[in-house]
Specification:
The protein has 128 residues and is of the alpha+beta class. The chain is 39% helix and 10% strand. It has 5 helices and 2 strands, in the order αββαααα. The longest helix has 23 residues, at 94-116. It is elongated and about 100 Å long.
Amino acid sequence: MASVLGAVGVAVRVDSWSRGEVALICRQPKPLLLLVLPLLMALPGVQGRPPRQPSATYVQAPEVPEPSSYALVDLMQGHDFAGLDADGDGRVGESELAKSVEAAVQAAADVVWASVDINGNEQLDLED
């Protein structure tokens, strides 16, 4: 670019290319500058960066609340304390709760599977 402009008598000094600041030093009469300046402004990078989008118009992700029970309340609704206390010590430990929840999830999955596996081949395919 500098060699082309140097041939017509215009020197270019780039102060900060990232900000699009370009200084022109004209060694020829101003009418020649009026011919070169539109050509120079047509070059990408000389015009500067496009304006930034205002941050108020950025796409915002909605706030999603943390689930309070992870649907365990619904899954465990039919179970009583005695059913959760597998060893009968009067307390429900973490492992006892986990086993009861796993059994409830498996029972729920079996109900859903029976409704979606229409042809009963134990696989989901396009016919289902």
